[in-house]
Amino acid sequence: MNIALDGIPEHQAIDEETSKSSLTSIQSSSKKPMMREDAIAARLTDMLNAGVKLSRMAVESNVAKDKLEAWIKGERPVEITLALSNWFTGIDEEIAERSGDFFMTPSAEIFLRAFEHARESKGNEGQRGIAMIYGASGTGKTVTAKWATRMDDNVVYVQADGERRTWTGLLNGVVESMSFYGRPSVGEKLREFISRKIPAGGLLIFDHAQLIRLSIMEQLLIFPDECGIALAFIGNTEGYRNFSNAKLAHINSRVRGSIIVVEMPKEEDIDALLEARGIGGRKERDFCLLIGRQDGGLRYLDAAIFEARKIAYATGTQKLDLRLLKLGATNAGCWGATHEG
User: Fold this and answer.
1) 3-state DSSP call for residue 332?
2) Would the CA dihedral through 73, 38, 34, 8 be positive or negative?
3) CA nearest 128: which of 10, 225, 18?
4) Strand 203-207 and strand 259-262: pairing?
5) pLDDT tens digits, one per residue of 253-294
6) Which secondary-structure segment (H or E) carries 50?
7) How far is residue 147's CA from residue 141's CA, in Å, rounded to a whole number?
């Protein structure tokens, strides 16, 4: 048999070339984007290695067993690829819906208290304060901020980036996040629109604050000082060092004790995650502590649990044991054979 350069049989490569219009119509009729073939193949391999029978996979994916076996061996018609993609996407969506992206940890409670402290009225003129939350990635800062936004329409979250780092860029980000309020009227300043729509005691959260120049932070003080709208800056440890070295007393005095620096996820945070995800056992906890107690730890650990849940779902297993957690961590890229021993 002649083999095409990409490993697909030559006759199949020709067939696929002549059916591009069919591929386009199939993809356009599907509500979900199609997964890459190598990603589907990896998922099937994980399931086979976990002991899932091919017959069960065929039934659940609604793909005939012989066609599924042929797909694994390299015969990959578009309609089978799409069916497998939809199957896996559906599994992932169900797991994500069950898990959610937010769980209350001791650190999250501290972050939320800092937000509330900043929102409290200060002085006779109703000024508000500033919360500053800095530290390692994967400690729940961003997830908590986004959760607070979903819970309260008067809390607005904006992530600073290459474009959203100037005064105008950040305020445009705030307005875009407030799209349910409409747009500023002709000639209305962004600041006026924001202060008109967000009542006193509202909160503007600026994430990746290490990208925001200190001079821009100073300009933003007009919101807590004159509009009664609190501010929160979330950033990494470098951002905190820059702010601390600048010794900006006029900003620092408005923080009112809400400067929080998180070096890495706490053991209690990891326990809260494990409880939220229904994971127990001494060996399992020890392994999760190993993954979670590092920069980015909670994010890595949650990704590992999500990958482990995929395998468990396929095998019909309810409990995530140490073996599944290690497989999940390997698939998530935060564990490998070199860690064993």
Assistant:
1) helix
2) negative
3) 225
4) unpaired
5) 565 546 788 877 888 889 988 888 888 899 999 999 999 888
6) none
7) 10
Determine the Cα–Cα distance for residues 199 and 196; give it in Å rounded to an integer.
7
pLDDT score, position 203: 95
**For the segment 215-255, what is each residue's pLDDT rounded down to a tens digit?**
898 899 999 989 999 999 998 877 666 766 666 555 655 65
Tell me, what DSSP letter sits at residue 76?
-
Measured between alpha carbons, how far is 101 from 302 in angstroms, rounded to an integer?
Answer: 9
Q: What pLDDT was estimated at residue 250?
A: 57
- Single out the residue of 224, 212, 221, 195 nearest to residue 117, CA to CA: 224
| DSSP per-residue codes, 80-146 | HHHHHHHHHHHHHHHHHHHH-S----HHHHHHHHHHHHHHS-BTTTTB--EEEEEE-TTSSHHHHHH
> What residues contact residue 267 under an 8 Å CB cut-off, 6+ apart?
289, 293
Nearest residue to 261 via CA among 244, 246, 273, 245 = 244
Neighbours of 253 (CB within 10 A): 10
pTM above 0.90, yes or no: no
Residue 320, classified by CB atoms within 10 Å of its CB into exposed (0-12), middle (13-18) or buried (19+), is: buried
Q: With CA atoms as reference, report the closest residue to 292 among 107, 95, 141, 139.
A: 139
Backbone conformation region of residue 278, classed left if phi is above 0, alpha if psi is from -120 to 50, else beta: left
Residues sharing a CB contact under 8 Å with residue 45, sequence separation 6 or more, in sequence order: none
DSSP-assigned states of every residue in 215-268: HHHHHHTHIIIII--EEEEEE-HHHHHHHHHHT-HHHHHHHTT-EEEE-S--HH
For range 33-57, the mean pLDDT: 85
